[in-house]
Specification:
- This protein is mainly alpha-helical.
- The chain has a domain at 31-57.
- It has one helix at residues 40-51.
- The radius of gyration is 19 Å and the shape is flat.
- The two termini are 23 Å apart.
Amino acid sequence: MESMAGSVMPLPPFDHDAQTKFTDPPNSTWSFCQKIENTDAGRRWLEGEKKGWKVIDTEEEDKT
């Protein structure tokens, strides 16, 4: 595994004073344990899964 030291965006130093912040979910109708097929977006996602996903080999992609 290569080091991330040469990555494009260096990571900031660790913030020891960071605090946990709880927020509402982006979808206000979402609930814990909700099955993915219970929403239109989830059903569309499942259809994509049935068709298969496009695999992208980042080593082969144009890096410009």
